[in-house]
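Team,

Forwarding the record for the chain on the shared tracking sheet. I've put the sequence and predicted structure together so nobody has to dig through attachments.
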Amino acid sequence: METQNSLLAALTGNPMLAAIVGVIALLCVLALLMIVSSRRAAAYAQEDAARRATESDARLAEVLRLQAEMQGRMAAMGEALSSRQSELNRAVSQRLDGMSHRLGATITEQTKSTHDNLRALQERLAVIDAAQNNIQSLAKDVVGLQAILSNKQTRGAFGQGRMEAIVADALPLGSYGFQTMLSNGTRPDCTISMPNGAPPLVIDAKFPLEAWNVFREATDPDLRRNAGQQFRRDLEVHIKDISEKYLIHGETQDTAFLFVPSESIFAEIHEHFEGVVQKAQRARIVIVSPSLLMLSIQVIQAVLKDQRMREQAHLIQGEVALLMDDLGRLDDRTRKLQSHFLAAQKDVEQILTSSDKLNRRGAKIGALELEAPVQHNHASESHGAQLSHGVESRTGLLKLRVVDED
């Protein structure tokens, strides 16, 4: 205490010292406050740390709980996903099986369709090959025909051959002739004999085909007109030659045929050269196509047949007379046979009557229906009745019944 008092006295006596002491005291107070505040801060820090640790533990527990729930959910989701995956796998496998089956069936059908198409294609190719072979052979024939038609002699032989084929197919042998010489030294392509001693009909198979080909192939109007005039002149010259060479009075018919070996040429001649056709008709030359020649030959054939029938008419009448005689004899013999049949029928009827009587009697015998003799006196009837009664009384089994029959 004394020390404090002395210190206070010293301090009060020395202001500097009092100030220093005050500063030191202030520093001590400040240090103490700092220590207290640091301790409080440490306590606060510890409390805050404890609180944070508690919160961390709570959060950690919550996190663990959430993690456990998440794991449960993940497990449930895994199970659901596995079941869904198995279902998906099963559905996918089923779909794949169905698709593979359909794909296999489709491939099988496509293969079968492909095979059928290939087979049909092969058949069509075979038909095309055959058609190509036919076309090639036809082309060869056309080339040969062109070679024939390009030569005047061979072309005339071609037209004459066609005409001869038509005539030979329609008429009998002996009624036609080819290259027969006439009195003027000419040889027509064909002569057809006519009935009743009439002169033969002459057919010419030559045709000015060069001028016709030029006219047909011409595209320029002037060239076509010039070619038409040339063809008209050639045809008129040929008609005049036929009229002068083959129309001989008393030896041939007054009309001759000019054979055109094509229906199209015949039609175009009548279409574009009607004046030439009329001039040929005035010259008694008839232009005929293969069809018209066939029709004319058929008419001639009918006329020849009618002539032969008229020539054989007396023979036919004689045969008919002989046939009528044979028919009369057949009628007489048939009537005699009918009379024999009538007599035999009467005999058969009598035989049938006797047979019916025999059948009736046999039936009566089979049924034990015996016929008793007819008696006119009463005694006989009474005797028969007694006999019948006696037989019935003796046997007791057999019953006889008297039947009177007319």
